[in-house]
Amino acid sequence: MENGKTYIKTATSFSDKDITVIDDILCCYGRMTAKQLVELTHQKDGLWYATAERNHLFESFEQKVTNNSDCQIDLGECLTGCSQDLYSGQMGFLKMSRAYGT
Fold it and tell me: Which of 40, 51, 57, 99 is exposed most, by the fewest CB atoms within 10 A?
């Protein structure tokens, strides 16, 4: 704590490209409320909805048993052709890199 303010240090540094992406996201969505973001990301034709449906999560959500899950959303589902191939290849590379601790 410095000067009565708490600062959180990141575990990693960000490249200039990372900062540009973060700035673009904040520019587009930074003024939206949590409710607006949920309405945007949970639309019936979106990846969140498809993942929740595929993993039979709606009953638990509707009965308020839980409001979250550990299911991962595969962003590759919204890509086609070469883009999907490149994404899948990169995800495979990242998985292998993490397995070897590199």
Answer: 99
Strand partners, 2: 5
Q: What is the pLDDT along the chain (102 residues), one digit of tens a residue?
A: 667 777 777 767 888 998 999 999 999 999 999 999 999 999 999 999 999 999 999 999 999 999 999 999 988 888 988 999 999 999 999 889 988 876
Angle at CA of residue 71, ends 99 and 59, nearest 5°? 160
DSSP secondary structure string, 29-68? Answer: HTT--HHHHHHHHT-TTSHHHHHHHHTT-HHHHHTTS-S-
Tell the residue number behind the tokens 């498809």, with chain if given: 50
Residue with tokens 């700035």: 23
Residues 93 and 77: their CA atoms lie apart, in Å, by: 18
For the chain, which residues make up each domain, given as ranges?
74-102
